[in-house]
Amino acid sequence: MHHFSLAALWWQTAPATATLSSDQLYLWIALAIGVFGLLAALLFARSVLASDAGTREMQAISDAIREGAEAFMRRQYGTIAVLAIVIAILLYGGYSISPRTAPYAAVTVISFLIGAVCSGFAGYTGMYVSIRANIRTANAARTSLNRAIQSALRGGAVTGLIVVALALIGLGLLFLAFGGFHHPQEVPYRLVGFGFGASLVALFAQLGGGIYTKAADVGADLVGKVEAGIPEDDPRNPAVIADLVGDNVGDCAGRGADIFESTAAESVGAMILGAALYPVFGLKGVLFPLVVHAINLIASTVGVMAVHSKENEEPMHALNRGYYVTSLLAILGFAAAVYFMLGGRWWLFGCGILGMATSYLFVVITEYYTESRYRPVQSIARASLTGPATNIISGLAVGMETPAAPVLVISAALLLSYYFGIRGLEDAQIANYAKGIYGTAIATMGMLSSAAYILAMDTFGPITDNAGGIIEMSNQPESIRERTDKLDAAGNTTKALTKGYAVGSAALAAFLLFSAYLEEIRNVVMDRVAAAGGYMPAGWSFDNVNLASVPVFVGALLGAVLVFLFSSLAIQAVGRAAQYIIQDVREQFKENPGIMLGTSKPDYGRCVSIVTKAALREMVVPGLLVILLPLVVGEVFRHFSTAFGVHAATNVPMIHDMPVNLSGAEAVAALLMVGTITGILMAMLMNNGGGAWDNAKKFIESGQFGGKRSEAHKAAVVGDTVGDPFKDTAGPSLHVLIKLLATITLVLAPLFL
Amino acid sequence: MHHFSLAALWWQTAPATATLSSDQLYLWIALAIGVFGLLAALLFARSVLASDAGTREMQAISDAIREGAEAFMRRQYGTIAVLAIVIAILLYGGYSISPRTAPYAAVTVISFLIGAVCSGFAGYTGMYVSIRANIRTANAARTSLNRAIQSALRGGAVTGLIVVALALIGLGLLFLAFGGFHHPQEVPYRLVGFGFGASLVALFAQLGGGIYTKAADVGADLVGKVEAGIPEDDPRNPAVIADLVGDNVGDCAGRGADIFESTAAESVGAMILGAALYPVFGLKGVLFPLVVHAINLIASTVGVMAVHSKENEEPMHALNRGYYVTSLLAILGFAAAVYFMLGGRWWLFGCGILGMATSYLFVVITEYYTESRYRPVQSIARASLTGPATNIISGLAVGMETPAAPVLVISAALLLSYYFGIRGLEDAQIANYAKGIYGTAIATMGMLSSAAYILAMDTFGPITDNAGGIIEMSNQPESIRERTDKLDAAGNTTKALTKGYAVGSAALAAFLLFSAYLEEIRNVVMDRVAAAGGYMPAGWSFDNVNLASVPVFVGALLGAVLVFLFSSLAIQAVGRAAQYIIQDVREQFKENPGIMLGTSKPDYGRCVSIVTKAALREMVVPGLLVILLPLVVGEVFRHFSTAFGVHAATNVPMIHDMPVNLSGAEAVAALLMVGTITGILMAMLMNNGGGAWDNAKKFIESGQFGGKRSEAHKAAVVGDTVGDPFKDTAGPSLHVLIKLLATITLVLAPLFL
Fold first, then answer.
1. Which among A394, A415, A551 is the nearest to B415, CB-wise?
2. Are the C-beta atoms of residues A437 and A421 closer than 8 Å to each other?
3. Which member of A142, A194, A539, B198 has the lowest number of beta carbons within 10 Å of its beta carbon?
4. Which residue of chain B comes nearest to A561, CA vs CA?
5. How far separated are the first and last CA of chain A, in Å rounded?
6. Could you read off the pLDDT of B583-614 as tens digits, one per residue?
7. What was the pLDDT predicted at B329?
8. B559 neighbors B675 (Cβ within 8 angstroms)
9. How far is Cα of residue A647 from the mean position of the Cα atoms in its chain?
10. What ipTM goes with this model?
11. Interface test with B, best of A214, A375, A382, A396 (most B CBs within 10 A)
């Protein structure tokens, strides 16, 4: 294997482009489409920002939200930057210790930092637009439902397009810069730092934002609705702006960073698998994931443009039309990519279709569990009749039921795409395992091929939520409120659906990322053995994670416990941060009795500032836990005697006549795999349970089981409050955790041997 | 391998005993001590029953409880008997299909039925005594704390001793009957049916009892305390007797069956591993688990006898003294058994000590999370100040935190006992893996060596709970109530501790049971290959469960989802059954207004009968799910093409030049292992979360955070109600589920190939 030095690496692009082959063209096309995606985002942003920003009163509220959100983001990214730099230094140090990893120290750290910056930028710009789109949407809602939907969706599309375009451009340029055209089989491994950087920022963005948003929400509700007896979004509540800020920093910025890291991590994983298939597809197999994202950008842009709504139509219908347009274009593009890049192996196209079908089924199942038309939500609403305890019991039971159907879907998708992969690559001279895993990677690509549109729909949620809040707070007439309520309901649905999509993609991508890790370990072992002049069995690969071995089982146990402990810490963080708000609001009411009388304004900024500090403090411990546990397990188990190993040492890589000790790598693999399984189930429990509680409350508010202000409604409010940190803090953070585990193990892999 | 026929098998004991060797003597000694255990139980029962049964009023209440409990048990065991017979027939059919398993059909079904009957008998007799000990304890409490403690503990000891003695005698006699002295390496595999029978009955006993007890409890509380505003255990509440009945059928009978199946399943597993070590220890290694249970019986009997309390002492102190006496004797006995039977390999004694230490640490950790002296319970109590929502959030967060410390303890115990096993068997000519796993088996034996005393302490709980209820309902003076309240508090603690112990033993035993399954598969494969004249690599063993293979990963995913779905179904069952009670109580209040005035008596029997029917109906679906899923996964994946397999087929068992297809067996192994991991974590979440909620409520009732009838108290009552089905239905049923998964996979193993 070629050892890179930074100087030799940088700008090897020039000679590469000088000998441009047709395969290399794919990268340039993808990059060009990436730039087009950024331009489309810019145009959407301009069209949204150009529209009217409403009354002075509305602007005052919107400004307060914007200031709060920007203040939070500044501080949050400040904190994250410090953490990222510390980790970069430690990473550099860790890689530099051993002479065998030292050559990769610089490239890994550089791609880590670039990934981190892109992830942060993706989250930030998305939010930048959404906190400006909210008021335009509110203003548009005063005259036209169609314009309001378009304003919110295009605002969301800015996030969606930037996220995908940045992942594409970032990975593409790094691939070029690290000499990918010269060493296409090796450079993908150098990109793991990019995925790790993206995941790390995403975890903290999602976790910090999630803590912020729910601490503000729970705090505002408890002290406003419950204690003071004033309605939601009442301007007398000092925490109300903090609450509206939360929607942006949690949902927008958090989910943006989440999908950015999905896109980045899964693309890197798929490129690594493409590198393993180099004998079959050449450079095209490595570039395929980037081309899929180019297709994604075009399909999603057209999809967003296609959304028009009649004035009396359900907003979801209009949004779904755009989704269908996007999906259709994505399928066509995918077929073309398979034809031109993967030699028209239609079984592999079938994998892509499987991925899209999985995504669709996840959405349907999520709807079943979170919409009030179906049994689960209605059962929670009915249980509210006997008080909060039965509401909670029923909601938890629904939450624990929710993973069953999606897991069956994922199981079928994994098995089928594995099988399709083997069929599609029947003639290739590689192991069946590699063929099958590549099939699951293609399925993941299929699932991600409409990611930008999905993310636009997701960001639609907080924008309409904010628009509703602005309308509510600026005393607009009832007819306009009805319009924003409709938008808000659609936004709640899209938010729930995207979470289903995010978990689904995490589950389907799991194998792709595991395999990338196993490939990476094989690579490191080969390197080691070659350097020490040891024995390397022909065709050996690290493809065994034996759960029947005690250290591996312990790794698995720790992976599962990590998910439980992380969830606990995230939820406790919300509780603690909410206490600070509650105290502040109580103090403000006490200091200034004019607030409740409506004669003087509360100090919104104080609440925002307090919850900002609290959220950022609280995100550090759970975040570090996720980073440190795999490192500790890998390092500790690495030093376990091979006596713990199960296998008789036959035909394994040897150095100085001793088998290479894979205990650490294997235990970490189990931690990753069982952590992923537990994480997926727990995330579904929390997302869907929380969504079901929320909608059970809304169902009662619609007049069922006694309606608003009945005892059943009070009970349902308790359930909704419990569900909040589930569905908006712990659940979404678990998606990121799963992928962060994958990328951190990829990056740390060389240290486990 | 020798093929048994029933006729040849039955009563091979006689020739065996004719040539009694010193090794065989151990079995006879163990059996004799088993009989002694039964006698000791009889004496304890007589001493409890001989004491005075209190006033006529008290007896009326006690009679009502007894009648309700007996009616439930009759119907429950009727339902279970039908299910068991159906399963026995299917099992016989399944084994008979293939000519290779047919010879074992009869023995497997016979040991299944005997195991089932013993398990049922263990649960029933334990409850028989406890529903008679409750009133004697109540009466004793009128004069002396010491006599009350002794009465409750000895009543509990009847369950503890019978459970362990029956497991010992049942397994010992089957071993004899199946010709164990002639074929000591093969007969342990024939005993798996016994473990399965025990687990099956235990699951339904625990699940049905758990649903009953919590449906009655939740129903009685909601309609009594919340709706009608009358205190707990108020005789005007028609559901109050059903509630008291529930304590017996859920806690006593359920836990009795639970520990019976732990003892049985883990002993069978350890005997199978002992058989694998036959070259080292001979017959003694196979009999060792039975001898440990003999020690357990003696140590626990002495421990129970040693409990005396001063009148002003905390009851827990007296109970702990008995525990220390038992532990000390168990250590001495264990040392003697290691010296005489395992050739004084003191590293193995170390394994036993590790097991005892694990048990102790689990108890300490459980105390930390469930006692009001410590942070977790206090944090829940404090969160109650801001209402039920924060109480629930805080309780769930505590619940999700609880598995972390126990998992670290279990990880250390597994790794250390594995290491000790390798050291202790350094000179033996077997694979390190077998040595290490035997170490974990010895550790499990160590943990179980005080099981009878632990179970006595556990059953102490419902007896004192009932005694408190009887005192409450029969209008005794305040001073006596204070005494029973003290007893009741101690009972709550012992119940929580035993649950910690039960999860701990399930976790530590996991490896023992996995390995028994892997051994069983190896055995079946060898059989197959021999019969077909195929190729069997020397020293081959089935010791690889490769999580990196897609079908295996899917098996793992399904194992985890099983735990979630089962918990959901169990909790939903409680909710539905509780609705029936609530309706009936409401109707009774409406039909007969004299009930609330205290002028006429409610119809207790109607409530008991309604909840009985509901609980039994509700237990069937979740129970069948656990039985069917491993069967379906094994059968479906068995037919998966070997193309899914990861391994190049080198040096594996072959029949007709095709590798033996292990896909089904491997996927089931993953289901078992990851199901176990998830089950352990979920059980801890539920048991400890539920216990913490309960004690947070009690902490507030003791005057903290506003005391009884404050808003915080109301919030805490909500948490307590949510925790009820967690800690008394789903959590304990999950212990049983984990072990049932292990025994059912053992029994079905031949069908997966």
1. A551
2. yes
3. A539
4. B404
5. 18
6. 888 888 888 888 888 888 888 888 888 888 88
7. 96
8. yes
9. 38
10. 0.91
11. A396
